[in-house]
Write a structure and sequence with these properties.
With 115 residues, this protein is α/β, with parallel strands linked by helices. The chain is built from two helices and four strands.
Amino acid sequence: MPHLVIEYSNDGHGGLLDVARLMEAVHDTAADTGAMKAADIKVRATAFSDYLVAREKDGFCHVSVYLLEGRTHTQKINISESLRETLAALLPQTKSLSVDVRDMDPIAYRKRLND
């Protein structure tokens, strides 16, 4: 069920951005934390051509992690730090790298799977 949403600038990565590789690395890193099962992780990415970082057009990559509640603060910190390290390794020239881990409301969350 975990959703990992990658938002990134179209430029500002020193030519090092490979989105398919980034998505796979984010997936694998999240699974390696042990806080979620690899088979349950959904990853998607959205590029932005219009953006500002501190009023400048500097490259960025941000990962939002949406989880149903139940992980400890320590697990969430580990997820965040592990993903940030992965971003830094893949995008060493990118100005802004960030990760945010959020609990989803299990009462309001709904999904539909089509067999």
